[in-house]
Write a structure and sequence with these properties.
The chain has 951 residues and is α+β, with helices and mostly antiparallel strands. It has 26 helices and 41 strands. An 8-stranded mixed β-sheet has the order 13-14-16-23-20-19-18-21, covered by helices on one side. The chain has a 7-stranded mixed β-sheet with strand order 28-36-35-34-31-29-30, with helices on both faces.
Length: 951
Amino acid sequence: MTVDATAGARPEVSAAEAAAVARELWGLDGEVRELGSQQDRNYRVDAASARVVVKIAHAATDRRDLEAQHEALRLLRRAGLRVPSAVAARDGEHIVPVGFAGGPHLVRVLEYVDGEPLIEVAAYAEAEAALVGDTAGRVAAALAALDVEPAAHASQWDIREGARVVDDLIDAVTDPGRRALVRAATDSAAARVAALADLLPAQPIHADVTDDNLVRDSDGRVGVIDFGDLMVTWRVAELVAASACAYMRDEPDALFLATVRGFAAHVALTDAELDALWPLVVLRCAVLVVSGEHQVALDGDNDYADERRGAEWRAFAAAAARDAGEMAYLVRAVARGLDDPRADATATLLPAGIAAASVDLSVTSDALAAGDWLVPGIEERVLRAAGGLAHTRWGEFRLTRTRLLTPRGGAATLALGVDLVAPEGCTLAAPFAGRVVATRTGLALHGDDATLWVDGVAPFVLGEVAPGARLGDASRGDVVHVQLGPADDRRPPACVTPRLADLWRRISPDPSRVLGVAASAPVIAPADTLARRDAHVAAAQEHYYSRPPQIERGWREHLIDTEAQTYVDVVNNVTIAGHAHPGVVDAAARQWTLLNTNSRFHYAAIAELSERLAALAPAGLDRVFLVNSGSEAVDLALRLAFTATGRGRILAAREAYHGWTIGSDAVSTSIGDNPRALETRPDWVELLDAPNPVRGTYRGRGSAAAYLADVDARLDALGADGRAQLAGVVIEPIFGNGGGVLLPDGYLAGLYERVRALGGVCISDEVQVGYGRLGAHFWGFEQQGAVPDVIAVAKAMGNGQPLGAVITTAAIAEAFEQEGSFFSSAGGSPVSARVGVAVLDALRDDDLQGNAQRVGALFGDALRALGTRHPSIGAVHGMGLYLGVELVVDADLTPAPELARRVCDLLLDDGCIVQPTGDHKNVLKIKPPLCITAESVAWVVAALDRALAAA
């Protein structure tokens, strides 16, 4: 048998030609509208007597296949299913060969089945998915009686030929990354299926009972349409097609299992079919994407195939990311009704009254500090350190089981059992009656309604036992694993991914009652926590994402949520040394045990930090004010300019953000942060055109002269009196809020020169871009070859601790002293100052600025390489580890904010936290901790590649 995977484009038959056929051969005249189809042409005709569908089969269609479809329709109607009938032509025939301009084709007319397609149901939920499964099961049960010969040519939709179809069509997938993913997923799935193929029963099936081919009328009756894929193949393929469509929707796993449950109510699936279902779903998704790409390449005007490609790729990506072992177990549990075991314990496994210590392996565990959760064997080490009888917790998302550089939900962290170490002489007893069997790793106690699995213990007895019977010695020294599961000979996984946590908790329930000790972990509900936050935190103090993960831990460039899923932190320019840096943590903890007060007291840390900062600044800038934030730093810098000059006007650039205090907000002009920014500036702020060489008034790195000419014009417009009131200028040396856009070469030096000529003070806002982040330069102004009079810095200084600084000249500082004294409660406190010193130590000792230069170059080059494959990347900004990816609609750089939002959501699913910035919210800001590795960068770039392809 050969596979007809390249049957060709759809028939070249127009609506007018279809209308003529309906009118002349069937006597049906009415309005004609094309319906979607992958390889045929379908037209709905609204005739006066009936609404029908004219179906023009593609050229490779065998007449016998169409006759088989008509017989299937008759059989299903007798079984009570709502399906269309074939309408006879005027000559009494139901299948008529017709010669069209594009060639001959077989034509039929079927009744139109009214109703809303389930694919269009807005509130599609498990009830709809179960309906799909129920209908597919009824169809499969009825078609078992259909007597039809297998087709001479296997359809590309025959799942038995799926691997060969992918082989034939995979070259249509032009993106190399996607092609590699399809290849790997296909090979893995095909290998699993091959071992089961001879055990899978075959029969006629519809092969496409999906939400696209089911309609529901106003009375709730379901109709089945489109029998074009009717074939003889494996029976389970009916469920494969029905359930795979779940992965084109949100929360697909629950929908998938609801479909399985509905199908299993009508068809008793064999063990082999249950084991084969999931790899076949993955294979089906692979076939869908290669077929869709092939069809669009072949048939460019096929809007139906083109529009479905995005959903098909999302389905494939989701299915390929699932753990095959987990999915196979869930399929079996749901289909066999094994998802609610009951352990009626009348005794306990552990001796009654024994003292037990509970060990915390969660994301917030004190025992897993400083990356210890990555150390092999850490679980056993923590258990044994507790002494006596110690046990882990059931239902806990274990930090020890997470995996770095893994998609969200991809790490199997949910513990379905309990591990314990026992003191000498601790004997285990049967908690309920059952049959004891030896396993490869211990024993299993099979009861009437549940099975207890115990690893690390050799059974004392085999066979039937009563409650309380001695099972084995738990004190041999091994870690004992205890887990409840269904009354079945297949055990649940010890740890699973969090996607279906509630279902897994039912399948493998809390063993506390069986153990005789309370062993369940507290339930953490991120959605409830978010609701509490939203109820009491002002909405203006926003959070990332509409459904954010609850982040409770960080390590280096990684963030970890309460389900122990990790994310590469690409957005956090605050924690410059990395999350939970040991040196910073130790410095803060030690200082808290000694002293924390305000900066008016005399202590060493403030002197050391100020001395270190002055040494890093240009010569002459040797006076330091310590503050608690970037906003406060900019605000104070403005006051320094006012007092030093005795003037009250400031120059500031458009498209900039400087802070939220009254002063720093006054010079902030980014409409991305404040849509009314430009219209609400106070009259003492004079705005300059944003010197943006990418999308500004003048383009290119050499545009400084043109922008400076505009500065001259703006200064001239102020007049002599206005210029005499100019206190200075505040500007970022790189447009941080714009995503790291570099100023035109020489612009900053030219601007400073003009301001100083008028007696003004030059302020460099380094809050976002300075402190080694640029790699080649410690300060942003160094990139421009300019030296300011005042440096405002924060964020990175404290690695998350509230700390900032204003560094200036002695003359400017002394002028400010005339206004009175100054202090900042948190900014210059002993703890903040000691943390600031520790951050500088980390920058030096860990060579973080060097890493920013080396890894930042890799990052930038990789992002620019992506731009050669994705036209939506209009530009890559920045340097070092302050980068921005500008997403656009077209070559004119029309901003693409919706694309940026979708990409960020997709990146979150792929384990990367990225957010948009800029006036148009279309620039992906890339500013990770400076300790980020090349491996993490490669992961982020690959994830962005996938996201741009799928968005």
